[in-house]
Amino acid sequence: MNLKANDFSSRAEKWKKEFEKLRTIILDCPLSEEFKWGQPCYSFQGKNILLIHGFKEYCAILFFKGALLKDPKGILITQTKNVQASRQIRFTNVKEIVELEAILKAYINEAIEVEKSGLKVEFKETREFIIPEEFQNKLDKIPALRTAFDALTPGRQRAYILYFSAPKQSKTRESRIEKCMNLILEGMGLND
Question: For the whole model, what pTM was predicted?
Fold first, then answer.
């Protein structure tokens, strides 16, 4: 057991019993417990398999390569439409976790087998993401912006496209684009 992960569970104000039960189940599998990104994280031979995290309405285990799991019980959830690899199993109480214990172990063992086999998630190429019309107009009107955007890494381009695409209103999309134009022109990513 990792001391930071242990501390995480013991100090949790919400989901404390759920975190403890999930840890018990996960640690019964051949995984190493670490503490990454502020969450208990479980790996196999140095490769991240899953983590435990809590939210306002639920707690969950997140499989890093969940998209590659078979999911015969239909319990894996894609967090948002833009998530490509990871999948969650969500819980709102300990009873749900106890009822799924055998299934959770089966999914965890399948995730370990996926990692052992070397399977990789096929990610969409950046060019497959739709650039919002407001940003496309800016790229067409400002050649320096087009050049700077094209020079960014695919991950940085994706981050901007997703950030600009998220708002429902055109006005909000335009505002985000205006605020980020200097970052793009400086060759910086959204979170740099």
Answer: 0.74
Question: Tens digits of per-residue pLDDT, 149-164?
Answer: 999 998 899 899 999 9
Cβ atoms within 10 Å, residue 75: 15
Q: For the domain with range 3-117, which CATH number is right: 3.40.50, 3.90.1150, 3.30.43, 3.30.460?
A: 3.90.1150
Q: 118 Cβ partners below 8 Å, 6+ apart?
A: none
For 148-168, b/e burial (b = at least 16 CB within 10 A) is bbeebeeebbbbbbebbbeee
Contact indicator for 49, 108 with CB cutoff of 8 Å? yes
CA dihedral 178→184→188→192, nearest 10 degrees, is 20
Render pLDDT for 54-66 as a digit per residue (tens, 0 to 9): 999 999 999 999 9
Give 13-46 as a 3 state SS string.
CCCHHHHHHHHHHHHCCCCEEEEECCEEEEEECC
